[in-house]
From TrEMBL:
It comes from the Bacteria. It holds the Pfam family Acyltransferase. GO terms for biological process: phosphatidic acid biosynthetic process. This is 1-acyl-sn-glycerol-3-phosphate acyltransferase. The keyword Hydrolase does not apply. Keywords: Acyltransferase, Transferase. Residues 55-182 form the Phospholipid/glycerol acyltransferase domain. The keyword RNA-binding does not apply. It comes from Leptothoe spongobia TAU-MAC 1115. InterPro entries: Plipid/glycerol_acylTrfase (IPR002123). GO terms for molecular function: 1-acylglycerol-3-phosphate O-acyltransferase activity.
Length: 391
């Protein structure tokens, strides 16, 4: 396993302490995270059926509370899991606690060799259980899944190929896990309050009650003003022939290009999210030019991540309270300049467990066509997660 450095924090799993924390995890989830765990007995049984095997759990990442929800799921299954967590979370006592719980760090956007080595080492151990968020970060969207990074399947395939040389019957499973949240109470008043707050902050005057707009019309008015303001801030003129998705995409690419230019970085064709994480890692490592410049650039990267997965039509396609508030909370982060916003009300964290994929059946394919096998399984896993979100 990789040693601890100031750039990498390995797991220091404490089984007795984890069992103690797991015993109260439901109370923590309910009291501090305002959330209930929902998972079927059949899905729990499906996980327990492969209890003696090596397992990689891949899960979508809609909110900043997902880690605690997954820890509670592990408690429900009765297992100890390892978790890959962003390095910036490993600070002070919180960092030590995360290590004790089986978490280890990853420097996103930089090809963290120590973290990769740690994952490969763990997966070679009997009964290894590792949680990976293959989207590469939080999407802030409850019902859709961002593209998966190939490493989530490439690493376990690499280990499986090595293990198969010693024992062709060795099992190593990858399990798609779908996580979504549902508010358990009517959210009309909360949506109204959130809309009113944004309208007031942006100076939007809503017509009197006799001519009141719908929630969706008001959401569009807020989003339109915010989009116009950001375009103006970054000196982008509107093109009438472009739809919102084209404007959002153009804006994201323009802003990330500006950020990279400030650090003399060359665009490398990677997804915007990976480019943002690289900038954030460099900002943390470098001596800042000035505090003001450093803070401003960091905040720009936060704004990029906030809008990375957004698209026009997300609410219109299925105007649930969750989708409304997904979008409104994005707008609140931008308008109020808040990096993390707490959930609006008590929720359920609903897990669906997909069919485990035994990688021993793909070793021959991997040897014939490594890139194609990785790409095919990555697509299959993402589709499985998305399908279970929609069910």
């Amino acid at each position: 396993m990789a040693p601890e450095t100031n750039l990498f924090f390995p797991p220091k799993q404490q089984p007795l302490l984890i069992r103690l924390v797991q015993s109260v995890s439901y109370l923590v989830l309910q009291r501090l995270y305002r959330c209930d765990l929902v998972v079927s007995d059949d899905d729990i049984a499906q996980l327990r059926a492969i209890d003696s095997s090596r397992v990689v759990y891949v899960c979508n990442h809609p909110t900043m509370e997902d880690g605690m929800a997954l820890f509670s799921l592990a408690a429900r299954v009765g297992q100890l899991w390892h978790y890959i967590v962003a390095r910036e979370s490993f600070k002070g006592l919180q960092g030590k606690f995360l290590q004790w719980m089986g978490c280890y760090s990853i420097r996103r956007g930089l090809g963290d060799r120590a973290s990769i080595a740690q994952t490969l080492s763990l997966l070679k151990e009997p009964q290894a259980r590792v949680v990976i968020f293959p989207e590469g970060g939080c999407s802030y969207q409850n019902d859709t899944v961002m593209p998966f990074r190939s490493g989530a399947i490439q690493m376990p395939l690499q280990v499986m190929a090595q293990l198969a040389k010693q024992d062709p019957d060795t099992d190593l499973y990858v399990v798609p896990i779908s996580l979504k949240y549902r508010y358990i109470e009517p959210m009309t008043a909360v949506i109204e309050q959130t809309l009113q707050g944004l309208e007031q902050e942006l100076g939007i005057v809503v017509a009197d009650m006799a001519d009141a707009k719908t929630f969706y019309q008001r959401l569009l008015a807020i989003a339109s003003l915010v989009l116009n303001r950001i375009e103006s801030e970054f000196s982008l003129s509107s093109h009438p022939e472009q739809d919102w998705n084209q404007r959002i995409d153009r804006l994201r690419n323009h802003v990330i290009d500006q950020c990279e230019q400030q650090l003399d970085l060359q665009p490398n064709g990677a997804p915007i999210r990976e480019r943002v994480y690289k900038i954030q890692a460099l900002l943390e490592a470098e001596e800042p030019k000035t505090i003001a410049e450093d803070d401003a650039l960091y905040w720009t990267t936060v704004r990029l991540l906030n809008f990375d997965a957004i698209y026009d039509g997300y609410v219109a396609a299925d105007p649930t309270p969750e989708r409304f508030l997904d979008t409104l909370m994005r707008l609140e982060r931008e308008v109020y300049q808040i990096e993390h916003i707490q959930p609006k009300a008590y929720r359920q964290a609903i897990f669906r467990i997909g069919q485990p994929i035994n990688l021993k059946h793909y070793v021959a394919d991997l040897r014939r066509d490594k890139a194609g096998t990785v790409a095919r399984l990555t697509k299959q896993l993402r589709q499985a997660v998305q399908d279970n979100l929609a069910s």
